[in-house]
Specification:
Number of strands: 0
CATH topology: ABC transporter involved in vitamin B12 uptake, BtuC
CATH architecture: Orthogonal Bundle
Oligomer: single chain
CATH superfamily: ABC transporter involved in vitamin B12 uptake, BtuC
Shape: globular
Largest sheet: none
Distance between the termini: 73 Å
Structural class: mainly alpha
CATH class: Mainly Alpha
């Protein structure tokens, strides 16, 4: 019984024959990790974790509706994400208002998505994959769409990176110095919506946080450098996404448990390392202060 259970999780007997089947998924996962790592830096800075989940629910609703009406699932996911991002960006200027709007959108989007999937007469795997991800669901057309989305998101982030960082770290001072904080917030929400639409098609609507938040949250635990945080966030996301796909290839379960487990393990390791460094810094600081005090007293 235990052997059968383990074989469902990890089975590398036909790994060589299966690997060519997920070439597109590996490329898509790598692109998603790049986008997720960069976007996640600002999600953490701007405290938008709850908003990400809200956008993912409407992305799921759009993808489910597209599946029901035999339309392109990628376009449906993008449409749902952009609608949610626009609503949150335009109506949720303050954190309290934003969280209220997300709290309203989440059950609405999830309900619409479940209704569309319940009416969909096709394969159950297609329904389940929108929630938990599918390893072989990325065909050439979908990969092309993901490349285009990734190019738009990364290009947009590079254009607004410096003012967006300023507006994220200290919005009041940024606004006082003439930075268009509201416009930047709306632009970022649209870029976030596109990133979420990508993530839904790889890891599913329920677990997008594992690639859009966890890697960046892990990175800020070990460094405060504005250069190293995005670098480490992208690296952690790459390990989670690509590693999860490679592990899931030999299993009969969805990809998402592997991606989320790797991502969570990285976060725990970074939290442990960051905690040890913080404690060492606290110990050394009083020691230096004591030494300085002793010198003065002497």
């Amino acid at each position: 019984m235990t052997d059968d259970w383990w074989a469902r999780l990890v089975d590398f007997s036909d790994y060589g024959q299966l690997l060519p089947l997920v070439t597109n998924s590996l490329v898509a996962g790598s692109l998603l990790a790049l986008v997720g790592g960069l976007v996640g830096v600002f999600v953490v800075q701007r405290d938008l974790a709850f908003a990400v989940h809200g956008v993912s629910e409407l992305s799921f609703a759009g993808a489910s509706a597209a599946l029901l009406f035999s339309l392109d699932v990628s376009l449906g996911a993008v449409a749902g994400s952009l609608v949610a991002a626009l609503l949150i960006g335009l109506l949720g200027a303050r954190a309290r208002e934003r969280n209220s709007i997300v709290g309203v959108l989440m059950p609405f989007g999830l309900g619409l998505g479940v209704l569309a999937l319940a009416l969909y007469p096709g394969r159950a795997a297609n329904k389940f994959g929108l929630l938990t991800g599918q390893i072989v669901a990325v065909d050439d057309a979908r990969l092309t769409a993901m490349v285009a989305i990734a190019a738009v998101v990364v290009g947009g982030l590079l254009v607004v990176w410096r003012p967006l960082t300023f507006a994220s770290v200290d919005p009041d001072v940024a606004a006082a110095r003439g930075v268009p904080t509201r416009a930047l917030s709306l632009v970022f929400m649209l870029l976030l919506g596109l990133a979420v639409a990508m993530a839904v098609q790889i890891v599913g609507a329920l677990l997008v946080l594992s690639l859009l938040i966890t890697p960046a949250a892990a990175a800020v635990r070990v460094t405060a450098s504005p250069v190293w945080v995005p670098v480490l966030a992208v690296l952690f996301a790459q390990v989670s996404a690509v590693g999860g796909i490679l592990l899931a290839l030999g299993a009969s379960v969805p990809i998402s448990p592997y991606v989320t487990t790797i991502s969570f393990a990285i976060y725990l390791a970074c939290r442990f390392v960051g905690g040890r460094r913080a404690r060492r810094g606290w110990v050394r600081r009083p020691a230096r202060q004591a030494a300085a005090g002793g010198t003065i007293a002497g």
